[in-house]
Design brief:
Largest sheet: none
Shape: elongated
Oligomer: single chain
Low-confidence stretches: 158-162
Number of helices: 5
Order of helices and strands: HHHHH
Helix content: over 70%
Radius of gyration: 17 Å
């Protein structure tokens, strides 16, 4: 278990900023693919799997509901396991749910995976921003700004919705 969310900034600043930048960059990539890249694939999925527009829309709704749940549940998660564990576990869950979506055509399973992925993505985004903000206010402001720029660049590389 790592330090709680209220731990001093010194715990995450200093030499560890490079690891934090890598973690946040990977998190932003996962978030971009699972949240934004999915919109590009949805029309092709709908056509190939024979879904109605309502069924395809349900997938996006499941993701949005999960996203809301993840954002609302994040403070409790941070208090329980800390920032680093939250980032790592949410990145893993978002990645696994994205891979699971690629592995099944079953609508019910896809709805569950999109909801879980949405919750993990929301927590990942907010926790990543929290880490970047903490680093930006730490002793090494340049490190925090580098992380913010890297995460922003990764999110900008995500495909736009049609």
């Amino acid at each position: 278990m790592d330090a709680p969310a209220t731990a001093p900034v010194a715990d995450i600043a200093g030499r560890r900023w490079i690891g934090a930048a890598i973690m946040l960059s990977l998190a932003a990539t996962v978030l971009g693919l699972s949240r934004f890249g999915y919109g590009v694939l949805l029309p092709a999925m709908r056509a190939e799997l024979g879904w109605s527009y309502a069924q395809a829309g349900l997938l996006e709704t499941a993701n949005a509901v999960g996203y809301l749940a993840g954002a609302l549940g994040l403070p409790a998660l941070l208090a329980r396991v800390g920032l680093t564990t939250t980032l790592r576990s949410c990145a893993a869950v978002a990645t696994i749910s994205l891979l699971g979506c690629a592995a099944t055509p079953d609508l019910a399973l896809l709805l569950a995976l999109r909801g879980i992925g949405g919750a993990a993505s929301a927590a990942l985004l907010v926790a990543g921003a929290l880490l970047a903000a903490r680093l930006a206010t730490a002793t090494d402001v340049a490190a925090g700004l580098l992380i913010l720029a890297t995460v922003t660049a990764c999110l900008r590389l995500a495909p736009d919705r049609p």
